[in-house]
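Let us begin with a simple case.
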Amino acid sequence: MKRTRSVLRDPAALIGGGIVLAICLAAVLAPVLAPYPQDLVAMHFGQRLRPPSALHLLGTDRVGADILTRLLFGARTTLTVAVIAVSAALAIGVPIGLVAGYWGRGLGEVLMRVSDVFLAIPQLILAIAIAETLGPALPNVILALSITYWPWFARLIYAQTLSALKEPYVDAALTIGAHPLRIMLRHVLPAVSSAIMVRTTVGLGFTILTAAALGFLGLGAPPDTPEWGRMVADSRDYLPDAWWYALAPGGAIFLLVMGFNLLGDGLRDLLDPRFAQAADTGRDA
Protein backbone atom coordinates (compact mmCIF):
# COMPACT_ATOMS: atom_id res chain seq x y z
CA MET A 1 0.00 0.00 0.00
CA LYS A 2 2.84 2.38 0.85
CA ARG A 3 4.47 1.74 -2.54
CA THR A 4 1.18 2.29 -4.32
CA ARG A 5 0.74 5.66 -2.61
CA SER A 6 4.32 6.47 -3.53
CA VAL A 7 3.62 5.90 -7.22
CA LEU A 8 0.32 7.79 -7.04
CA ARG A 9 2.29 10.76 -5.75
CA ASP A 10 4.65 10.48 -8.72
CA PRO A 11 3.38 12.99 -11.34
CA ALA A 12 5.54 11.51 -14.09
CA ALA A 13 4.10 8.02 -13.62
CA LEU A 14 0.56 9.36 -13.53
CA ILE A 15 1.12 11.39 -16.67
CA GLY A 16 2.65 8.40 -18.45
CA GLY A 17 -0.19 6.11 -17.46
CA GLY A 18 -2.76 8.70 -18.50
CA ILE A 19 -1.16 9.16 -21.92
CA VAL A 20 -1.00 5.41 -22.57
CA LEU A 21 -4.58 4.89 -21.38
CA ALA A 22 -5.91 7.77 -23.46
CA ILE A 23 -4.23 6.57 -26.67
CA CYS A 24 -5.32 2.97 -26.07
CA LEU A 25 -8.92 4.09 -25.58
CA ALA A 26 -8.71 6.24 -28.72
CA ALA A 27 -7.46 3.23 -30.67
CA VAL A 28 -10.25 0.99 -29.39
CA LEU A 29 -12.91 3.64 -30.06
CA ALA A 30 -11.46 4.72 -33.41
CA PRO A 31 -14.58 3.74 -35.42
CA VAL A 32 -16.67 5.93 -33.11
CA LEU A 33 -14.28 8.85 -32.67
CA ALA A 34 -13.05 9.14 -36.26
CA PRO A 35 -14.93 11.98 -38.00
CA TYR A 36 -14.49 10.55 -41.52
CA PRO A 37 -14.06 6.74 -41.43
CA GLN A 38 -14.52 6.59 -45.19
CA ASP A 39 -11.25 8.48 -45.63
CA LEU A 40 -9.34 5.27 -44.95
CA VAL A 41 -9.99 4.34 -48.59
CA ALA A 42 -11.52 7.45 -50.17
CA MET A 43 -9.54 10.22 -51.89
CA HIS A 44 -10.58 13.87 -52.07
CA PHE A 45 -7.97 15.64 -54.18
CA GLY A 46 -9.96 18.86 -54.07
CA GLN A 47 -9.34 19.00 -50.30
CA ARG A 48 -5.69 17.94 -50.25
CA LEU A 49 -3.27 19.60 -47.80
CA ARG A 50 -5.91 21.68 -46.06
CA PRO A 51 -4.71 23.21 -42.76
CA PRO A 52 -6.46 22.43 -39.45
CA SER A 53 -9.99 23.77 -39.36
CA ALA A 54 -13.39 23.10 -37.84
CA LEU A 55 -14.07 20.45 -40.49
CA HIS A 56 -10.65 18.80 -40.22
CA LEU A 57 -9.18 19.35 -36.76
CA LEU A 58 -5.71 18.15 -37.78
CA GLY A 59 -5.94 19.08 -41.46
CA THR A 60 -5.86 16.81 -44.51
CA ASP A 61 -3.08 14.84 -46.19
CA ARG A 62 -1.79 14.60 -49.75
CA VAL A 63 -4.92 12.80 -51.01
CA GLY A 64 -7.38 14.95 -49.05
CA ALA A 65 -8.00 12.37 -46.32
CA ASP A 66 -8.71 13.55 -42.79
CA ILE A 67 -5.49 13.23 -40.76
CA LEU A 68 -7.29 12.79 -37.45
CA THR A 69 -9.17 9.80 -38.84
CA ARG A 70 -6.01 8.15 -40.13
CA LEU A 71 -4.23 9.00 -36.87
CA LEU A 72 -6.85 7.21 -34.78
CA PHE A 73 -6.85 4.09 -36.92
CA GLY A 74 -3.06 4.30 -37.13
CA ALA A 75 -2.97 4.01 -33.34
CA ARG A 76 -4.60 0.60 -33.72
CA THR A 77 -1.93 -0.50 -36.17
CA THR A 78 0.94 0.85 -34.08
CA LEU A 79 -0.26 -0.64 -30.79
CA THR A 80 -1.12 -3.99 -32.37
CA VAL A 81 2.34 -4.33 -33.91
CA ALA A 82 4.06 -3.35 -30.64
CA VAL A 83 1.98 -5.61 -28.39
CA ILE A 84 2.33 -8.70 -30.60
CA ALA A 85 6.05 -8.15 -31.19
CA VAL A 86 6.87 -7.61 -27.51
CA SER A 87 4.67 -10.55 -26.48
CA ALA A 88 6.51 -12.82 -28.92
CA ALA A 89 9.88 -11.54 -27.71
CA LEU A 90 8.70 -12.14 -24.14
CA ALA A 91 7.65 -15.71 -24.97
CA ILE A 92 11.10 -16.41 -26.47
CA GLY A 93 13.39 -14.47 -24.15
CA VAL A 94 11.95 -15.31 -20.72
CA PRO A 95 12.20 -19.14 -21.05
CA ILE A 96 15.71 -18.82 -22.50
CA GLY A 97 16.77 -16.56 -19.63
CA LEU A 98 15.27 -18.90 -17.03
CA VAL A 99 16.94 -21.99 -18.48
CA ALA A 100 20.29 -20.24 -18.95
CA GLY A 101 20.26 -18.85 -15.43
CA TYR A 102 19.18 -22.12 -13.80
CA TRP A 103 21.67 -24.39 -15.53
CA GLY A 104 24.47 -21.83 -15.63
CA ARG A 105 27.53 -23.28 -17.32
CA GLY A 106 27.14 -25.45 -20.36
CA LEU A 107 23.68 -24.90 -21.80
CA GLY A 108 23.36 -21.49 -20.14
CA GLU A 109 26.63 -20.28 -21.63
CA VAL A 110 25.60 -21.41 -25.12
CA LEU A 111 22.23 -19.63 -24.87
CA MET A 112 23.82 -16.41 -23.64
CA ARG A 113 26.41 -16.44 -26.41
CA VAL A 114 23.60 -16.73 -28.94
CA SER A 115 21.85 -13.75 -27.38
CA ASP A 116 25.15 -11.83 -27.43
CA VAL A 117 25.35 -12.33 -31.19
CA PHE A 118 22.00 -10.59 -31.60
CA LEU A 119 22.89 -7.86 -29.10
CA ALA A 120 26.15 -7.16 -30.93
CA ILE A 121 24.15 -5.82 -33.88
CA PRO A 122 22.11 -2.62 -33.32
CA GLN A 123 18.44 -3.56 -33.16
CA LEU A 124 17.33 -1.07 -35.80
CA ILE A 125 19.98 -2.21 -38.28
CA LEU A 126 19.07 -5.87 -37.79
CA ALA A 127 15.35 -5.10 -38.03
CA ILE A 128 15.90 -3.18 -41.26
CA ALA A 129 17.85 -6.10 -42.72
CA ILE A 130 15.14 -8.62 -41.80
CA ALA A 131 12.28 -6.42 -42.99
CA GLU A 132 14.07 -5.62 -46.25
CA THR A 133 14.66 -9.31 -46.90
CA LEU A 134 11.08 -10.36 -46.17
CA GLY A 135 9.38 -7.37 -47.79
CA PRO A 136 7.10 -4.57 -46.51
CA ALA A 137 4.19 -6.11 -44.60
CA LEU A 138 2.95 -5.89 -41.03
CA PRO A 139 3.58 -9.60 -40.23
CA ASN A 140 7.16 -9.18 -41.42
CA VAL A 141 7.59 -6.09 -39.24
CA ILE A 142 6.30 -8.01 -36.22
CA LEU A 143 8.67 -10.88 -36.97
CA ALA A 144 11.64 -8.53 -37.38
CA LEU A 145 10.88 -6.74 -34.11
CA SER A 146 10.39 -10.00 -32.20
CA ILE A 147 13.63 -11.52 -33.46
CA THR A 148 15.62 -8.43 -32.54
CA TYR A 149 14.11 -7.80 -29.09
CA TRP A 150 14.04 -11.20 -27.38
CA PRO A 151 17.75 -11.06 -26.33
CA TRP A 152 16.97 -8.09 -24.08
CA PHE A 153 14.48 -10.22 -22.14
CA ALA A 154 16.84 -13.20 -22.13
CA ARG A 155 19.76 -11.21 -20.71
CA LEU A 156 17.61 -9.52 -18.06
CA ILE A 157 15.94 -12.73 -16.87
CA TYR A 158 19.29 -14.54 -16.90
CA ALA A 159 20.74 -12.03 -14.44
CA GLN A 160 17.58 -11.96 -12.32
CA THR A 161 17.47 -15.78 -12.20
CA LEU A 162 21.05 -15.98 -10.96
CA SER A 163 20.08 -13.59 -8.16
CA ALA A 164 16.86 -15.47 -7.33
CA LEU A 165 18.69 -18.80 -7.05
CA LYS A 166 20.55 -17.41 -4.03
CA GLU A 167 17.31 -16.90 -2.06
CA PRO A 168 16.72 -19.24 0.93
CA TYR A 169 13.39 -20.54 -0.34
CA VAL A 170 14.99 -21.63 -3.61
CA ASP A 171 17.79 -23.37 -1.68
CA ALA A 172 15.14 -25.18 0.34
CA ALA A 173 13.38 -26.34 -2.82
CA LEU A 174 16.69 -27.59 -4.22
CA THR A 175 17.45 -29.39 -0.97
CA ILE A 176 14.21 -31.37 -0.95
CA GLY A 177 14.82 -32.40 -4.56
CA ALA A 178 12.08 -30.40 -6.28
CA HIS A 179 11.91 -30.77 -10.05
CA PRO A 180 13.83 -28.02 -11.92
CA LEU A 181 10.72 -27.04 -13.89
CA ARG A 182 8.76 -26.64 -10.66
CA ILE A 183 11.51 -24.50 -9.14
CA MET A 184 11.66 -22.24 -12.20
CA LEU A 185 7.89 -21.81 -12.47
CA ARG A 186 6.87 -21.75 -8.81
CA HIS A 187 9.84 -19.95 -7.22
CA VAL A 188 12.10 -18.22 -9.73
CA LEU A 189 9.52 -16.85 -12.19
CA PRO A 190 7.47 -14.99 -9.53
CA ALA A 191 10.71 -13.52 -8.16
CA VAL A 192 11.63 -12.04 -11.57
CA SER A 193 8.11 -11.01 -12.58
CA SER A 194 8.60 -7.38 -11.52
CA ALA A 195 11.62 -7.05 -13.81
CA ILE A 196 9.59 -8.58 -16.64
CA MET A 197 6.78 -6.06 -16.19
CA VAL A 198 9.13 -3.07 -16.20
CA ARG A 199 11.07 -4.31 -19.24
CA THR A 200 7.82 -5.04 -21.08
CA THR A 201 6.47 -1.54 -20.47
CA VAL A 202 9.67 0.18 -21.56
CA GLY A 203 10.04 -2.27 -24.42
CA LEU A 204 6.64 -1.33 -25.81
CA GLY A 205 7.77 2.26 -26.17
CA PHE A 206 11.07 1.28 -27.76
CA THR A 207 9.34 -1.14 -30.14
CA ILE A 208 6.84 1.53 -31.20
CA LEU A 209 9.74 3.82 -32.04
CA THR A 210 11.52 1.10 -34.04
CA ALA A 211 8.32 0.14 -35.87
CA ALA A 212 7.77 3.80 -36.77
CA ALA A 213 11.33 3.96 -38.12
CA LEU A 214 10.67 0.92 -40.32
CA GLY A 215 7.46 2.51 -41.55
CA PHE A 216 9.27 5.76 -42.28
CA LEU A 217 11.80 3.85 -44.41
CA GLY A 218 9.02 2.12 -46.36
CA LEU A 219 9.64 -1.27 -44.73
CA GLY A 220 6.53 -1.33 -42.58
CA ALA A 221 2.85 -1.20 -43.43
CA PRO A 222 1.70 -1.02 -47.07
CA PRO A 223 0.91 2.50 -48.37
CA ASP A 224 -2.85 2.11 -47.95
CA THR A 225 -2.55 1.12 -44.26
CA PRO A 226 -2.77 3.92 -41.68
CA GLU A 227 0.47 3.76 -39.70
CA TRP A 228 2.22 6.63 -37.93
CA GLY A 229 5.71 6.09 -39.29
CA ARG A 230 4.38 5.85 -42.84
CA MET A 231 2.37 9.03 -42.33
CA VAL A 232 5.50 10.93 -41.31
CA ALA A 233 7.33 9.61 -44.37
CA ASP A 234 4.49 10.70 -46.68
CA SER A 235 4.63 14.24 -45.26
CA ARG A 236 8.32 14.87 -46.08
CA ASP A 237 7.70 16.29 -49.55
CA TYR A 238 5.27 18.90 -48.22
CA LEU A 239 7.36 20.45 -45.45
CA PRO A 240 7.49 23.13 -44.19
CA ASP A 241 4.30 24.45 -45.83
CA ALA A 242 2.05 21.57 -44.69
CA TRP A 243 3.57 21.44 -41.20
CA TRP A 244 0.46 19.85 -39.68
CA TYR A 245 0.89 16.79 -41.90
CA ALA A 246 4.06 15.68 -40.08
CA LEU A 247 3.25 17.20 -36.70
CA ALA A 248 0.22 15.00 -35.99
CA PRO A 249 1.77 11.51 -36.40
CA GLY A 250 5.17 12.67 -35.14
CA GLY A 251 3.60 14.12 -32.01
CA ALA A 252 1.57 10.95 -31.47
CA ILE A 253 4.71 8.79 -31.65
CA PHE A 254 6.49 11.11 -29.20
CA LEU A 255 3.62 11.10 -26.71
CA LEU A 256 3.08 7.34 -26.75
CA VAL A 257 6.77 6.48 -26.38
CA MET A 258 7.14 9.04 -23.59
CA GLY A 259 4.03 7.65 -21.89
CA PHE A 260 5.38 4.10 -21.84
CA ASN A 261 8.77 5.27 -20.57
CA LEU A 262 7.24 7.31 -17.75
CA LEU A 263 4.93 4.44 -16.85
CA GLY A 264 7.85 2.03 -16.83
CA ASP A 265 9.76 4.26 -14.42
CA GLY A 266 6.73 4.37 -12.16
CA LEU A 267 6.34 0.58 -12.21
CA ARG A 268 10.02 0.20 -11.41
CA ASP A 269 9.62 2.37 -8.32
CA LEU A 270 6.57 0.36 -7.29
CA LEU A 271 7.90 -3.14 -7.90
CA ASP A 272 11.61 -2.79 -7.08
CA PRO A 273 12.09 -2.40 -3.31
CA ARG A 274 15.47 -0.68 -3.74
CA PHE A 275 14.07 2.10 -5.92
CA ALA A 276 10.93 2.40 -3.79
CA GLN A 277 13.01 2.73 -0.60
CA ALA A 278 15.25 5.32 -2.21
CA ALA A 279 12.22 7.30 -3.40
CA ASP A 280 10.63 7.25 0.05
CA THR A 281 13.90 8.31 1.68
CA GLY A 282 14.20 11.23 -0.72
CA ARG A 283 10.66 12.38 0.01
CA ASP A 284 11.14 12.11 3.79
CA ALA A 285 14.31 14.15 3.57
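The second case is a distinct protein. As before, the sequence precedes its C-alpha coordinates.
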Amino acid sequence: MTSHSAKLVVFVVFPNVKLLDVTGPMQVFADANLMAPNLYDLKLVSEAGGIVSSDALMPIGTDSILSLDDTKIDTVIVAGGSGAFAASEDERFVQRVLRLKAKARRFASVCTGAFILAKAGILDGRSAVTHWDSCDRLRDRFVNVAVREDAIYVQDGDVWTSAGVTAGIDMSLAMVAEDMGRKPALDLARSLVVYLVRPGGQSQFSGPLQRQFQVTSTRFEDLNAWITDNLSSDLSVEELAKHVSMSPRNFARLYKQHTGIPPAKAVESFRVEAACRLLEGSNVPLIEIARRCGFGDDERLRRALIRGRNIAPGAYRERFRTGAANC
Protein backbone atom coordinates (compact mmCIF):
# COMPACT_ATOMS: atom_id res chain seq x y z
CA MET A 1 0.00 0.00 0.00
CA THR A 2 1.35 3.41 -0.96
CA SER A 3 1.47 6.20 1.60
CA HIS A 4 0.09 9.49 0.30
CA SER A 5 3.12 11.38 1.65
CA ALA A 6 5.81 8.92 0.58
CA LYS A 7 7.90 9.21 -2.57
CA LEU A 8 7.11 6.25 -4.82
CA VAL A 9 10.24 4.60 -6.24
CA VAL A 10 9.46 2.17 -9.06
CA PHE A 11 11.90 -0.53 -10.16
CA VAL A 12 11.34 -1.81 -13.70
CA VAL A 13 12.49 -5.37 -14.41
CA PHE A 14 12.31 -7.91 -17.24
CA PRO A 15 13.27 -11.59 -17.78
CA ASN A 16 16.93 -12.32 -16.97
CA VAL A 17 17.38 -9.08 -15.07
CA LYS A 18 20.56 -8.86 -12.98
CA LEU A 19 19.45 -9.38 -9.42
CA LEU A 20 21.97 -6.98 -7.86
CA ASP A 21 20.86 -4.21 -10.22
CA VAL A 22 17.50 -4.45 -8.47
CA THR A 23 18.29 -5.38 -4.88
CA GLY A 24 21.28 -3.04 -4.45
CA PRO A 25 19.45 0.23 -5.20
CA MET A 26 16.27 -1.05 -3.54
CA GLN A 27 18.16 -1.70 -0.31
CA VAL A 28 19.42 1.89 -0.28
CA PHE A 29 15.89 3.30 -0.38
CA ALA A 30 14.59 0.68 2.07
CA ASP A 31 17.31 1.55 4.58
CA ALA A 32 16.66 5.26 4.08
CA ASN A 33 13.21 4.57 5.50
CA LEU A 34 14.88 3.43 8.73
CA MET A 35 16.26 6.96 9.07
CA ALA A 36 13.17 8.81 7.81
CA PRO A 37 10.10 6.54 8.14
CA ASN A 38 7.69 6.57 5.22
CA LEU A 39 9.99 8.66 3.05
CA TYR A 40 9.85 6.11 0.23
CA ASP A 41 7.41 3.50 -1.03
CA LEU A 42 8.97 0.83 -3.23
CA LYS A 43 7.32 -1.02 -6.09
CA LEU A 44 8.55 -3.65 -8.56
CA VAL A 45 6.95 -3.75 -12.00
CA SER A 46 7.38 -5.64 -15.26
CA GLU A 47 5.53 -5.49 -18.54
CA ALA A 48 2.84 -8.05 -17.67
CA GLY A 49 3.36 -8.43 -13.94
CA GLY A 50 3.77 -11.73 -12.13
CA ILE A 51 6.97 -13.68 -11.53
CA VAL A 52 10.03 -12.56 -13.49
CA SER A 53 13.25 -14.57 -13.71
CA SER A 54 16.57 -13.10 -12.59
CA ASP A 55 20.09 -14.11 -13.57
CA ALA A 56 20.70 -15.53 -10.10
CA LEU A 57 17.89 -18.11 -9.99
CA MET A 58 15.85 -16.08 -7.54
CA PRO A 59 12.46 -15.14 -9.03
CA ILE A 60 11.06 -11.62 -8.59
CA GLY A 61 7.42 -10.91 -7.94
CA THR A 62 6.11 -7.87 -9.81
CA ASP A 63 3.03 -5.86 -10.65
CA SER A 64 2.20 -4.80 -14.19
CA ILE A 65 3.50 -1.47 -15.46
CA LEU A 66 -0.10 -0.69 -16.36
CA SER A 67 -0.99 -0.72 -12.65
CA LEU A 68 0.84 2.62 -12.40
CA ASP A 69 -1.40 4.45 -14.88
CA ASP A 70 -3.18 6.49 -12.19
CA THR A 71 -0.28 6.65 -9.72
CA LYS A 72 1.99 9.58 -8.89
CA ILE A 73 5.62 8.48 -9.28
CA ASP A 74 8.71 10.14 -7.85
CA THR A 75 11.52 7.97 -9.21
CA VAL A 76 11.76 5.22 -11.82
CA ILE A 77 14.84 2.96 -11.94
CA VAL A 78 15.17 0.58 -14.89
CA ALA A 79 17.44 -2.32 -13.97
CA GLY A 80 20.04 -3.95 -16.22
CA GLY A 81 21.36 -7.39 -16.97
CA SER A 82 21.71 -9.71 -19.92
CA GLY A 83 17.97 -9.52 -20.54
CA ALA A 84 18.10 -5.78 -21.14
CA PHE A 85 19.13 -6.16 -24.77
CA ALA A 86 16.11 -8.29 -25.62
CA ALA A 87 13.88 -6.01 -23.53
CA SER A 88 15.10 -3.00 -25.50
CA GLU A 89 13.84 -4.67 -28.69
CA ASP A 90 10.35 -5.21 -27.26
CA GLU A 91 8.53 -2.20 -28.68
CA ARG A 92 5.50 -2.52 -26.42
CA PHE A 93 7.66 -2.75 -23.31
CA VAL A 94 9.78 0.23 -24.42
CA GLN A 95 6.68 2.33 -25.04
CA ARG A 96 5.34 1.51 -21.60
CA VAL A 97 8.64 2.53 -20.07
CA LEU A 98 8.45 5.78 -22.02
CA ARG A 99 4.96 6.43 -20.61
CA LEU A 100 6.45 6.23 -17.13
CA LYS A 101 8.95 8.95 -18.03
CA ALA A 102 6.14 11.51 -18.37
CA LYS A 103 4.86 10.64 -14.90
CA ALA A 104 8.12 10.58 -12.94
CA ARG A 105 10.12 13.40 -11.36
CA ARG A 106 13.36 11.42 -11.73
CA PHE A 107 14.20 8.65 -14.20
CA ALA A 108 17.19 6.33 -14.07
CA SER A 109 18.85 3.15 -15.26
CA VAL A 110 21.37 0.74 -13.80
CA CYS A 111 24.01 -0.91 -15.98
CA THR A 112 22.61 -2.07 -19.35
CA GLY A 113 19.19 -0.69 -18.46
CA ALA A 114 20.55 2.34 -20.32
CA PHE A 115 19.81 0.52 -23.58
CA ILE A 116 16.10 0.52 -22.73
CA LEU A 117 16.17 4.25 -21.98
CA ALA A 118 18.13 4.90 -25.15
CA LYS A 119 15.70 2.89 -27.30
CA ALA A 120 12.83 4.91 -25.81
CA GLY A 121 14.61 8.13 -26.84
CA ILE A 122 15.01 9.22 -23.22
CA LEU A 123 18.78 9.57 -23.59
CA ASP A 124 18.74 11.51 -26.87
CA GLY A 125 20.97 14.57 -26.53
CA ARG A 126 22.04 13.55 -23.02
CA SER A 127 25.20 12.27 -21.38
CA ALA A 128 24.93 8.73 -20.07
CA VAL A 129 26.89 5.71 -18.92
CA THR A 130 26.44 1.96 -18.80
CA HIS A 131 28.60 -1.03 -17.89
CA TRP A 132 32.14 -0.43 -19.16
CA ASP A 133 31.95 -3.51 -21.36
CA SER A 134 28.85 -2.15 -23.14
CA CYS A 135 29.84 1.51 -23.57
CA ASP A 136 31.07 1.06 -27.15
CA ARG A 137 27.92 -0.87 -28.02
CA LEU A 138 25.72 1.90 -26.58
CA ARG A 139 27.72 4.57 -28.43
CA ASP A 140 27.59 2.72 -31.75
CA ARG A 141 23.91 1.87 -31.53
CA PHE A 142 22.64 5.23 -30.28
CA VAL A 143 24.61 8.03 -31.90
CA ASN A 144 22.56 10.75 -30.18
CA VAL A 145 23.76 9.66 -26.75
CA ALA A 146 26.99 11.13 -25.32
CA VAL A 147 28.47 8.06 -23.63
CA ARG A 148 30.80 8.79 -20.68
CA GLU A 149 32.57 5.51 -20.15
CA ASP A 150 34.77 6.83 -17.33
CA ALA A 151 31.85 7.62 -15.01
CA ILE A 152 30.32 5.61 -12.19
CA TYR A 153 27.05 7.42 -12.69
CA VAL A 154 25.83 10.44 -14.63
CA GLN A 155 23.04 12.87 -13.83
CA ASP A 156 21.83 14.87 -16.82
CA GLY A 157 18.82 16.90 -15.76
CA ASP A 158 16.14 14.58 -14.43
CA VAL A 159 17.71 11.51 -16.05
CA TRP A 160 20.32 9.42 -14.26
CA THR A 161 22.34 6.48 -15.57
CA SER A 162 24.87 4.32 -13.77
CA ALA A 163 27.59 1.86 -14.63
CA GLY A 164 27.57 -1.82 -13.76
CA VAL A 165 26.02 -3.52 -10.74
CA THR A 166 27.15 -1.74 -7.55
CA ALA A 167 27.27 1.63 -9.33
CA GLY A 168 23.49 1.53 -8.97
CA ILE A 169 24.03 1.72 -5.22
CA ASP A 170 26.25 4.79 -5.65
CA MET A 171 23.60 6.44 -7.80
CA SER A 172 20.83 5.61 -5.34
CA LEU A 173 22.86 7.04 -2.46
CA ALA A 174 23.27 10.24 -4.47
CA MET A 175 19.50 10.36 -4.97
CA VAL A 176 18.97 9.96 -1.24
CA ALA A 177 21.50 12.75 -0.67
CA GLU A 178 19.47 14.93 -3.04
CA ASP A 179 16.29 14.14 -1.11
CA MET A 180 17.55 14.09 2.49
CA GLY A 181 20.85 15.93 2.47
CA ARG A 182 24.46 14.77 2.38
CA LYS A 183 24.89 13.99 6.08
CA PRO A 184 22.02 11.43 6.26
CA ALA A 185 23.28 9.87 3.03
CA LEU A 186 26.77 9.58 4.53
CA ASP A 187 25.29 7.85 7.57
CA LEU A 188 23.36 5.52 5.30
CA ALA A 189 26.45 4.70 3.26
CA ARG A 190 28.37 3.94 6.45
CA SER A 191 25.64 1.55 7.59
CA LEU A 192 25.81 -0.23 4.24
CA VAL A 193 29.63 -0.23 4.31
CA VAL A 194 29.85 1.17 0.78
CA TYR A 195 31.28 4.17 -1.02
CA LEU A 196 29.35 7.41 -1.29
CA VAL A 197 30.02 9.16 -4.56
CA ARG A 198 29.40 12.87 -4.83
CA PRO A 199 26.50 14.50 -6.68
CA GLY A 200 26.91 14.51 -10.45
CA GLY A 201 28.73 12.22 -12.88
CA GLN A 202 31.58 10.73 -10.93
CA SER A 203 34.75 9.09 -12.09
CA GLN A 204 36.36 6.00 -10.68
CA PHE A 205 38.70 8.39 -8.83
CA SER A 206 35.93 8.68 -6.21
CA GLY A 207 37.41 7.72 -2.86
CA PRO A 208 35.89 5.31 -0.39
CA LEU A 209 33.63 6.43 2.37
CA GLN A 210 36.55 6.16 4.78
CA ARG A 211 38.17 9.11 3.00
CA GLN A 212 34.99 11.18 3.00
CA PHE A 213 33.98 10.62 6.57
CA GLN A 214 37.06 9.60 8.51
CA VAL A 215 35.50 7.96 11.53
CA THR A 216 35.17 4.46 12.90
CA SER A 217 33.02 5.67 15.78
CA THR A 218 30.82 8.68 16.46
CA ARG A 219 33.51 10.42 18.53
CA PHE A 220 34.50 13.00 15.90
CA GLU A 221 31.47 13.03 13.58
CA ASP A 222 30.41 16.54 14.59
CA LEU A 223 33.94 17.84 14.25
CA ASN A 224 34.33 16.38 10.76
CA ALA A 225 31.00 17.87 9.71
CA TRP A 226 32.20 21.25 11.03
CA ILE A 227 35.49 20.89 9.13
CA THR A 228 33.70 20.30 5.83
CA ASP A 229 31.66 23.48 6.41
CA ASN A 230 34.73 25.58 7.28
CA LEU A 231 37.44 24.47 4.88
CA SER A 232 38.83 27.97 4.36
CA SER A 233 39.33 28.49 8.10
CA ASP A 234 42.41 27.77 10.19
CA LEU A 235 42.19 23.99 10.62
CA SER A 236 45.47 23.44 12.38
CA VAL A 237 45.68 20.81 15.10
CA GLU A 238 45.72 23.58 17.69
CA GLU A 239 42.50 25.16 16.37
CA LEU A 240 40.74 21.82 16.01
CA ALA A 241 41.74 20.90 19.54
CA LYS A 242 40.22 24.15 20.80
CA HIS A 243 37.00 23.35 18.94
CA VAL A 244 36.60 20.10 20.91
CA SER A 245 38.04 21.52 24.15
CA MET A 246 41.08 19.26 24.25
CA SER A 247 44.81 19.76 24.38
CA PRO A 248 46.49 19.54 20.95
CA ARG A 249 48.52 16.49 21.94
CA ASN A 250 45.58 14.55 23.37
CA PHE A 251 43.34 15.55 20.47
CA ALA A 252 45.86 14.41 17.84
CA ARG A 253 46.32 11.09 19.63
CA LEU A 254 42.60 10.38 20.03
CA TYR A 255 41.68 11.57 16.55
CA LYS A 256 44.13 9.16 14.95
CA GLN A 257 43.00 6.40 17.29
CA HIS A 258 39.37 6.85 16.27
CA THR A 259 39.82 7.63 12.57
CA GLY A 260 42.99 5.85 11.60
CA ILE A 261 44.74 8.96 10.23
CA PRO A 262 46.28 12.13 11.70
CA PRO A 263 44.13 15.30 11.81
CA ALA A 264 46.24 17.14 9.23
CA LYS A 265 45.88 14.32 6.71
CA ALA A 266 42.12 14.17 7.32
CA VAL A 267 41.78 17.92 6.75
CA GLU A 268 43.69 17.67 3.48
CA SER A 269 41.45 14.78 2.40
CA PHE A 270 38.30 16.83 3.06
CA ARG A 271 39.78 19.79 1.20
CA VAL A 272 40.74 17.63 -1.78
CA GLU A 273 37.20 16.20 -1.90
CA ALA A 274 35.73 19.69 -1.95
CA ALA A 275 38.18 20.88 -4.60
CA CYS A 276 37.29 17.91 -6.80
CA ARG A 277 33.59 18.74 -6.55
CA LEU A 278 34.31 22.28 -7.75
CA LEU A 279 36.61 21.07 -10.51
CA GLU A 280 33.96 18.64 -11.73
CA GLY A 281 30.92 20.88 -11.53
CA SER A 282 31.99 24.50 -12.03
CA ASN A 283 34.12 26.93 -14.01
CA VAL A 284 35.60 28.48 -10.86
CA PRO A 285 39.29 29.39 -11.45
CA LEU A 286 41.89 27.25 -9.72
CA ILE A 287 43.09 30.09 -7.50
CA GLU A 288 39.54 30.63 -6.24
CA ILE A 289 39.05 26.90 -5.66
CA ALA A 290 42.28 26.91 -3.69
CA ARG A 291 41.03 29.82 -1.57
CA ARG A 292 37.58 28.34 -0.94
CA CYS A 293 38.99 24.96 0.03
CA GLY A 294 41.66 26.31 2.32
CA PHE A 295 44.79 25.62 0.28
CA GLY A 296 45.74 29.29 0.02
CA ASP A 297 47.14 29.15 -3.50
CA ASP A 298 46.86 26.99 -6.60
CA GLU A 299 50.32 25.46 -6.15
CA ARG A 300 49.33 23.99 -2.78
CA LEU A 301 46.11 22.77 -4.38
CA ARG A 302 48.10 21.12 -7.15
CA ARG A 303 50.43 19.33 -4.76
CA ALA A 304 47.55 18.13 -2.57
CA LEU A 305 45.57 16.79 -5.52
CA ILE A 306 48.60 14.95 -6.86
CA ARG A 307 49.15 13.41 -3.42
CA GLY A 308 45.52 12.47 -3.02
CA ARG A 309 44.44 11.59 -6.58
CA ASN A 310 47.71 11.34 -8.53
CA ILE A 311 46.52 13.94 -11.04
CA ALA A 312 46.89 17.71 -11.44
CA PRO A 313 43.83 19.99 -11.06
CA GLY A 314 43.68 21.03 -14.71
CA ALA A 315 43.88 17.46 -15.95
CA TYR A 316 41.29 16.34 -13.40
CA ARG A 317 38.83 19.04 -14.53
CA GLU A 318 39.37 18.24 -18.21
CA ARG A 319 38.73 14.54 -17.68
CA PHE A 320 35.98 14.51 -15.09
CA ARG A 321 33.97 17.72 -15.36
CA THR A 322 30.22 17.04 -15.37
CA GLY A 323 29.23 19.76 -17.81
CA ALA A 324 29.38 23.50 -18.39
CA ALA A 325 28.57 25.52 -15.29
CA ASN A 326 28.41 29.23 -14.68
CA CYS A 327 29.28 29.23 -11.00
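The chain has two domains: 7-203, 214-320. Residues 263-281 form the longest helix (19 residues).
Keep these points in mind for the review questions at the end of the chapter.
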